[in-house]
Structure formats: C-alpha cells, structure tokens
Amino acid sequence: MLSIIASVAALHLSKAAADISVQGSDHVNVFQGTRGGGNRFPGVVAAPFAMVKLGPDVESGRTDAYSGYLPTGNIWGFSMMHESGTGGAPKYGVVSQMPVLGNITNPGANFSQPRASPDEGRVGYYKSSLANGITVELAATEHAGLYSYSFPNGSSPSVVIDVSHVLPSFRGLGWEQHYSGGSFGIFDDGHYTGSGTYNNGWNLSPDWSIYFCGKFNQRPSRAYTFVSRGNTTVSNKNGTSWVMGNQRLGGVFAFADTNLQSRVGISFLSTAKACANLDSEITPDTSLETLISNAQRRWNTEVLDKVKITTTNSSDLQLLYSSLYGMFLIPSNRSGENPGWTSTEPYYDDIFTFWDTHRCHTSLFQIIQPIAYEEFIRSLIDIWRHDSFMPDARSSNFNGRVQGGSNADNVLADAFVKGVRGAINWADGFAAMQTDAEVVPPNNFDPKAPDSSTKEGRGALPDWLQYGYITPRFTRAVSRAVEYATNDFGLYQVATGLKKPAEAQRYLNRSRNWRNHWNPSATSEGHSGFLVPRAANGSFIPQDPKDCGGCYWGDAYYEDNAWIYSMNAIHDVAELKRRIGGDERFVDRLDKLFDLGIFNAGNEPGFTSPFLYNFVRGMQWKSVERSRYIGSLYGAGESGLPGNSDAGAMESNLLWQMIGLWPMTGQTTFLILAPWFESMTIDLGRNKSLSVISTGGARDTSYYVQSLRVNGQPWDKAWVAWEDIFANGGTLEYVLGDSPVGWSTGELPPSPAS
Ligand SMILES: *[C@@H]1O[C@H](CO)[C@@H](O)[C@H](O)[C@H]1NC(C)=O
Ligand SMILES: *[C@@H]1O[C@H](CO)[C@@H](O)[C@H](O)[C@H]1NC(C)=O
Ligand SMILES: *[C@@H]1O[C@H](CO)[C@@H](O)[C@H](O)[C@H]1NC(C)=O
Ligand SMILES: *[C@@H]1O[C@H](CO)[C@@H](O)[C@H](O)[C@H]1NC(C)=O
Ligand SMILES: *[C@@H]1O[C@H](CO)[C@@H](O)[C@H](O)[C@H]1NC(C)=O
Ligand SMILES: *[C@@H]1O[C@H](CO)[C@@H](O)[C@H](O)[C@H]1NC(C)=O
Ligand SMILES: *[C@@H]1O[C@H](CO)[C@@H](O)[C@H](O)[C@H]1NC(C)=O
Ligand SMILES: *[C@@H]1O[C@H](CO)[C@@H](O)[C@H](O)[C@H]1NC(C)=O
Ligand SMILES: *[C@@H]1O[C@H](CO)[C@@H](O)[C@H](O)[C@H]1NC(C)=O
Ligand SMILES: *[C@@H]1O[C@H](CO)[C@@H](O)[C@H](O)[C@H]1NC(C)=O
C-alpha cells in the first residue's frame, strides 16, 4: 500500500504533465461502433448536436442501415439527416444526392456504387471513393452541407437528386419509413429548392417535411426535373421547371468540369429558410478545409477539451475521445427550426430514447455541456407546453415511443437536484412531470402493444393509480411498474425542492409501489423474492424469474428479466436489500447476475446493478471488478461498442467507468468505482474543475481502491454527493493496488425511499 505522501507527490507531477495540451479531435475514431451492431454514425457532424448529419447511405442486401452507414455494401446516396447509434428501425436518410457518370437517360435507375476503397473520416470530414472513379468529400455546418466531388478526367459529371430517397427498413415490423411526396424546382441560375415529406419509422410519426436549397459552384450544362409515373420516369428537359406530387421526383444536373462543389442548406420551416441557412453558413468561397477546421475547433472547445488526461497511450486517448464524441451526436439542436409552434424557448429533437439515456448519459451531458443541457431541459418543458406531454423518445418533431416509464421525469429530477436552474421554469417543469404522473395519455393503438399509449406518458397509469401496481391487462406490466416507481421518485425530488410537501409525500409513497410486485415466494437459483406479474385480485402470477417470455412489447418484462428488473428501484436499495435477505444474500444475488450470465453490458436495464455492491460495507471492491470487466468490452475500433450506441448511452457508460464514478440518476449520489488514469481533469465551467488522481494503478492488474481522499480529506464512504465534488469542483485522490481492501466502512449510500 502506497503512502499518502506518495500520492501528494504524484499530484504535483500530474499537474505539471497536464500542461501538455492534447487536441482531442486528433484522437477521435469516427468509425468507432460502426460495425457489429453499434450503429454509430461516422459522417460529418459539424458541432455537438448539429442538425445536419451528412454521410453516406449504404445498401447491403436486406440489412437495415440504422445510421445510413454500413461497413460493406453499395453507396446509393449521400444524405443530410441521420440518427446515430439507434436500434428499432432506420430514421431519416433524407435530402440526398448521388454523383453519377455520363448522361442520365433514366433518373430513376439504380445508381448505387461499390466502394473502390474503405471510406475515410475524421472529425468534420468524410470521404468515399466510388468504384466508378468518383471521389466524394463532405464537410458541413449546423444547417448546411458541402459536397466536394472529383469525377474522372474526361467524364461527363452528373448529379441526381431523388426526393423519394429515405432509409428503408427490412425488418417487417411496420416501422419502415415512407416517402409521401415532394417538390423540386430549378431556377434559371442553376440553383434549386424543394421539399420532401415522409412518415412512420420507429416512432410511428405522421407526415413531416424537410425543405432544401442547393447551389453548385458551376453552372450546369443541362438541368431538368423528373417525375415518375408508375415505373416510367418522365423527365422534363425544358430547363427551368417545377414538379410536385406524391410520385418519385427530383432533378438531374450535368456539368462540364470534373471538379464540382455542391452545397445544400436544409430547414424544417421553408425553402426560403433553407436558402438563408445555406447562404449564412456556406458561401461560394467557403472551402472544405475551413469547414473541417471550424468543426474540429467546435468539438474541441465544446466537448473534447473538457476532459484531459495525462497519458500518452494512444489507445487510451482514442477510446476516451471517440467515446466523448459519440456521446454528443444526438439529440439535435433544432432551435429556430421548429415547425410545430412559435416559441422563444430552445428546441431539441432526436431523443432516441430516455429509456436508454436517463441512466447515465444525461447526467454526464449536464457536466460536459452545461449550456446545452439547460437548453435541452427547457426544450423538454416547451414540448410539454405545446404537445401536452414530454417525450420519452422523439424524432421528426413527434413524440414516440415509450418502452417503459416516463423517464423524462428522472431526467428533470436529476437536473433539479443538481442545481440546474438558469432560465428553466421549474413550476412548469414540475407541472410537466405531474402530467406524466396523473394524466392517462390517449391510446395510439400501437399494433405491437394496443393496450395503451406507446406515444408518450404512462399508458398503464390507470392500474398504477387504482392498484398501486400494473395488472396483465397492460403489456410490459412489471418492467413499467419499476420504472413508474423511479419516475414517481423523480416527482418526489422536485416537489421537495419546490416546497410542496403534500405532493412530495404523495409521490414518495408511490415511488415505493415497485414493492407491490415483489413476490417473496418467487424463487430462482437459490434466491427468493422477485418482481412478478400480479393479477387484479392481488394474487401473484407464477413466473420463472429467469424467463421474460418474448421480452418485447407484448410481454410482462421488456428486454430483460426479473433478475435484472428486481434490482432497479435504485432509490429504495436498503428496502431491496432487506427483502433479498440482508448483506450476504444481496452480494450473492449481485454475483449471480454475472455468474449465471444474466447481466448484459449492452442492455440498459442492467446498467446500475454491477455497482450496487457499494451498498454493502467493505464490498466496494466488487463493484470495481465489475467496472473493469465492463470497460474491457469496449474499444476505439469499429466493433468497439458492446451493443447499440443507443444515442450515446453506451459511450457515457464507459466514460463513467473511466472517471471512476457511477451516477444514481435522480439523486445527488455518485457511487465510487476506480479511475482508469493517473490523472484526469474535467472542466466543469465557471472556472471549476474536478480532478481525479490515482497512484499505484495498472489497468488490468492493479485497480482495487486502497484508500481515497476527497478534497484532501480521508474518505471511508463508497459514494460522494454532487455537492462534494461537482457543485464547486473538487479532488479525488486514490491509491490503487492489486488486492481488495475493505476500505468502505463508512455511511452507506442514501436509500431515500427506504
Ligand atoms: C450528353 O448529352 C449532351 C446533350 O444532349 C451531348 O451534347 C453530349 O454529347 C452527351 N455526352 C455523352 C458522353 O453522351
Ligand atoms: C442496385 O444495384 C446493386 C448492384 O447491382 C444491387 O446490389 C442493389 O441491390 C440494387 N439496389 C436496388 C434497390 O435494387
Ligand atoms: C486529371 O487531369 C489533371 C489535370 O490535367 C491531372 O493533374 C490529373 O493527374 C488527372 N487525373 C487522373 C486521375 O488522370
Ligand atoms: C413496377 O415494377 C414492379 C417490379 O418490376 C412491378 O411489380 C409493378 O407492378 C410495377 N408497377 C407499375 C405501376 O407498373
Ligand atoms: C416546362 O415543363 C413544365 C412541366 O412539364 C411545364 O409546366 C412548363 O410550362 C414547361 N415550360 C416551358 C418553357 O416549356
Ligand atoms: C495502452 O494501454 C492499454 C490498456 O491499458 C494497454 O493494453 C497497452 O499496452 C498500452 N499501450 C502502450 C503502448 O503502453
Ligand atoms: C442551439 O442552436 C441555437 C440556434 O442555432 C443557437 O443559438 C444555440 O447557441 C445552440 N445551442 C448550443 C448549446 O450550441
Ligand atoms: C402513503 O401511503 C400510506 C400507506 O399506504 C397511506 O396511509 C398514506 O395516506 C399515504 N400518504 C399519502 C400522502 O398519499
Ligand atoms: C386471481 O386472478 C387470477 C387471474 O385472473 C386467477 O388465476 C386466480 O385464480 C384468482 N385468484 C383468486 C384467489 O381469486
Ligand atoms: C474565471 O476566471 C477568470 C480569470 O481569473 C475571470 O476573469 C472570470 O471572471 C472567471 N469567470 C467566472 C465565471 O467566474
């Protein structure tokens, strides 16, 4: 065990080393998580949360390309809107164009091209080399994109714009997008404008429209619109023209010079706004290089430079910065671009979904991007003002889908208890949460779960209010019940802070209702007591805790089983521990999650369970072992995510392991793990920072906490609070070693509902 003196000496050394500045964007692998189910978007996102996400759309048999991209297959367009890291079904892939060789006789033909070599990308830049010799380089701004084409010498360059282009889904689940119409007009000077309207996708959205405005750096030698009738494409070759309708339509442009630049602005409001967005962000003389360096600067100053480590190990640097980058690709900041209502509040879309992100993404979002986070919270409340409910998921300006609870409640509670105020109207914020807690959302009759709303709110609220649990007349009854309990705990937190004691008491009570699904006689693998389905007459329905049926929309548990969901009332852990049978049984049950292969690091419902050892004195070291195991599943490479990125949820999970803390969402508590690096500094804004320092550590062999000082004081609790290290900054100094030490003998982490 190293002495405290050694640790203080290391602190000084690390501070000196920290002066060597690291350009975070140099370490980002934009292809992290693009293979093996990560579904990350590798294309150009010019700033955190930029509205434009410009990249290739790839087809490969009947494989869904969730972010447009697939590592193998043909490219069939380069489009301006994508979502990163999601499952369900592909969304967007709209405002596309495709460079084509030769004179176009049939604009409706299949122009897809194999790649001549693998795509290349870095922050702010993307390049594809097509088999026909065309090279495509991309850069962007928040609302516009620049396509730089190089056609083979002596060829006849063309660009085909097909408004009907939208990412398909082959899953057959009814979640595919549809093109439902558009317009396309070419002006005398060669520029064009138009719009496309699309619907459906995973969130079952009605028609929504995107407007565009495009300009080239050369006058086209020929330009015409086309519209297809049946399978025949009719081209209008008379020059300036305008087409609209619900058929496949668009434009064809031919050029003389083989070096062509194409720039396009988009808007949700109008073609005029699309042109204004283009003209204000990319002018005729804006170079690709300028846009790339602007994008890198924004990513560095707004995200990547917020976290500094002193190591020179390039694989660590790549993993850290690729993860930070991947965390901030969505949601999309669409302030000033909301077609739904007029408001001076910020507007964010592409929340996909809080079911994924509320556990550990949003709490890191607050720390790294506090300005955007406050805007984001205001936007959620404004969506409630105008759409009646906050989203659990949202895209194309439409709330949907709800997998479990109304988890925006947890997000607002987490922000509230950590002091996020600014311009947020918290009276409205609490009213929005109360809508979730008290108003049954209208049923949208989702074919996958027709019992109640999957659009927003809490569909199973009637049972929750009547019985204090959810009967099987509602799908996903048990998993929804645990989440409703955590949602109600969120209301308790905010009601307490707003000095509403009656409401606080009501929701604290309700936050305990997860207990009503607890069947003490349900047994599995030597353990008794699990959350099970419960009938209206109060009797428990027999259920093997290891079996969740289909684990899907129509089942009692969604995407995980009773072993996992039984651990998820994280505001009531002391009671949970008591029901499980005390410390030893609790530790054994956590062990079994791993020993029996129940835990899946790629699935969000289990995210917090590995660290609940911190609720038993002296057992913090087991949480560290789990943390190291989870960390070992990640890498900076294409297959570096152990599951869908899920809008950055997966990346944020790893980042917390690196920091060595775990957020208990909705509370100010952070469970203590063990940091990865000798020195990490997180810029908290307002001239404050968190410094995490360790000595004696080695990633795979020496990671057990031997001792800890918080702000210089010896620490024996397996947790810290927001006030300790984040509110005003702070220092965590660890001594790590290669064998477990039962150092965490102090006060247990709070169980506020117990
Ligand atoms: C393409 O079409 C234009 C106009 O019809 C014609 O002048 C040109 O020769 C054609 N080029 C090729 C390669 O066919
Ligand atoms: C387009 O052509 C490519 C290459 O022949 C083929 O792989 C692909 O399936 C075609 N796409 C469509 C939508 O027919
Ligand atoms: C195309 O022509 C340019 C200018 O004549 C020349 O520099 C370039 O090498 C040529 N590219 C190819 C691929 O032949
Ligand atoms: C279009 O072509 C498809 C496949 O070749 C065919 O099944 C369909 O009937 C055609 N539609 C029309 C309107 O001709
Ligand atoms: C061009 O074509 C469009 C539609 O096909 C037609 O409405 C328009 O009158 C034509 N313009 C000229 C100048 O012929
Ligand atoms: C970088 O760190 C990783 C993870 O600890 C380790 O496997 C690798 O050997 C290190 N590389 C170098 C060059 O030290
Ligand atoms: C969000 O977008 C609006 C409009 O473009 C901009 O004013 C605001 O600064 C953006 N927010 C952040 C955090 O960048
Ligand atoms: C809380 O629950 C208890 C027990 O079910 C009940 O007696 C009490 O009235 C409830 N309080 C509120 C404020 O709902
Ligand atoms: C309670 O309801 C369940 C499901 O409807 C039924 O199977 C069970 O027999 C009932 N039990 C009692 C005691 O009525
Ligand atoms: C941060 O520190 C600088 C330099 O000491 C000072 O000028 C600035 O006002 C401080 N900002 C805040 C928000 O305290």
UniProtKB/TrEMBL annotation:
Coiled-coil annotated residue ranges, if any: none
PANTHER family: ALPHA-1,2-MANNOSIDASE FAMILY PROTEIN (AFU_ORTHOLOGUE AFUA_5G10520), PEPTIDE N-GLYCANASE PNGASE -RELATED
GO cellular component labels: cytosol; nucleus
UniProt record, GO biological process: carbohydrate metabolic process; glycoprotein catabolic process
Species: Ophiobolus disseminans
Record domain Glycosyl hydrolase family: where: 273-738
Signal peptide: 1-18
Keyword set includes Isomerase: no
Highest taxon listed in the record's lineage: Eukaryota
Pfam families linked: Glyco_hydro_92, Glyco_hydro_92N
Glycosyl hydrolase family 92 N-terminal domain span: 27-267
Keywords (A to Z) from UniProt: Signal
Protein name in UniProt: Alpha-1,2-mannosidase family protein
GO molecular function, one term: peptide-N4-(N-acetyl-beta-glucosaminyl)asparagine amidase activity
